[in-house]
Automatic annotation (TrEMBL):
UniProt xrefs under PANTHER family: ALCOHOL DEHYDROGENASE, ALCOHOL DEHYDROGENASE-RELATED
Domain Alcohol dehydrogenase-like C-terminal, chain residue ranges per copy: 202-326
UniProt-listed GO biological process terms: formaldehyde catabolic process
Record bears the keyword Ion transport: no
Protein's name according to its UniProt entry: Enoyl reductase (ER) domain-containing protein
Family: Belongs to the zinc-containing alcohol dehydrogenase family. Class-IV subfamily.
Keywords: Metal-binding, NAD, Oxidoreductase, Zinc
Lineage summary: Eukaryota, Viridiplantae, Streptophyta, Embryophyta, Tracheophyta
Length: 374
């Protein structure tokens, strides 16, 4: 049986309808069912997906308990949970890994068929463990990390070393790890190759770091925020382009930096629809490969078919192609050993009670990641 059967009342950030600001209110969190754990969140963070969530992406179900990045410890476990115990430090993710299905045993994808990415706002049994004044709460993906307590299915959790920096662990629960994995697992960047990264937020900086780790010889960052140049260089950037001061397209500017030809790999990390075609056009004729990572409310994108017909490849990526246990554990180990300059991501901190301030901070040019203290 679960180690506790009590409903917990705690604070959480809630959005009641599309476009409304978040409010911090008391909610009720049920005990975990058989294959679930209840987590005491310790630290969370904010990224652009959280902005999209209050605008109705990836689903339009409200009231919504917000947040999808974070780290916490196991408060209680369901009676079928064998690999975790009370007190274990965990990272919640939104990609499961059963290690048995066709996709999990393949090296081609991280998208588990047994525990898929959930866009229902509910648990795998299509119910919720969260409620407010008797009304069911939805969550963004597999959980709601901007809540003092949350329940997560065990198949979406990674146990991590208790000495890991909590803020850094939060960053790899989605953003940074998504970019890092996109270069490592999705593109499989070859040593000596050339790379362009569009958008130098946490995801883009992760892609730069992953490309450097894979041995890319030239890594070009594209961003309208001049302040991102210095951040990018810390993670491995070799060239920076700010297209706002030019009448040329960003793809043309990338080619100029690369001797007049496209790069081997490009990563679209912004979710801005118009930049998808730009990132494709920035790659080499015949062999260029573009990884689409960014997404948002506007997801119908007119595709430049000519750019694809001329031999380029476009590949989508969820969580950077990282498998929750097999791959994210490797990133977490690097994080715990401080082999990645994740301290450069941390620019602001706010308490949960000031969650709307976090959204305002994210608009500032010097902001990369906002940590939310629970």
């Amino acid at each position: 049986m679960s180690s506790t059967t009590q409903v917990i009342t705690c604070k959480a950030a809630i959005c009641w309808e599309v476009g409304k600001p978040a409010t911090v209110e008391e909610i009720q969190v049920d005990p975990p069912k058989a294959t679930e754990v209840r987590v005491k969140m310790l630290c969370a963070s904010l990224c652009h997906t959280d902005i999209s969530s209050i605008q109705g992406f990836p689903h339009n179900k409200f009231p919504l308990a917000l947040g999808h990045e974070g780290v916490g410890f196991v408060e209680s476990v369901g009676d079928e949970v064998k690999n975790l115990k009370e007190g274990d430090l965990i990272i919640p993710t939104y990609v499961g890994e059963c290690k048995k299905c066709e996709n999990c045993v393949s090296v081609k994808t991280n998208l588990c068929l047994t525990y898929p990415v959930r866009f229902t706002g509910l648990m795998p049994d299509n119910t919720s463990r969260l409620s407010i004044r008797g009304q069911r709460l939805y969550h963004v993906l597999s959980c709601a990390t901007w809540s003092e307590y949350v329940v997560v299915d065990v198949n979406y959790l990674l146990k991590v070393d208790p000495s890991i920096n909590l803020a850094y662990a939060s960053f790899i629960s989605c953003g940074f790890a998504t970019g890092y994995g996109a270069a490592w697992k999705e593109a499989r960047v070859k040593s000596g190759s050339t790379v362009a990264v569009f958008g130098l937020g946490a995801v883009g900086l992760g892609a730069i770091s992953g490309a450097k780790m894979m041995g890319a010889s030239k890594i070009i960052g594209v961003d309208k925020n001049e302040m991102k140049r210095e951040k990018g260089e810390v993670f491995g950037l070799t060239h920076f382009i700010n297209p706002s001061g030019s009448d040329k397209s960003a793809s043309e500017l990338v080619k100029e930096v690369n001797g007049g030809i496209g790069v081997d790999y490009s990563f679209e990390c912004t979710g801005v629809p118009s930049l998808l075609n730009v990132s494709i056009e920035a790659t080499k004729l015949g062999t260029g490969k573009t990884i689409a990572i960014g997404s948002g409310v506007e997801n119908i994108v007119p595709l430049d078919l000519i750019a694809i017909i001329f031999g380029r490849t476009l590949k989508g990526s969820v969580f950077g192609g990282l498998k929750t246990i097999s791959d994210l554990s490797i990133v977490a180990d690097k994080c715990q050993k401080e082999e990645l300059p994740l301290h450069e991501l941390l620019t602001h901190e706010v308490p949960l009670s000031e969650i709307n301030k976090a959204f305002e901070l994210l608009k500032q040019p010097n902001c990369v990641k906002v940590v939310i203290k629970m």
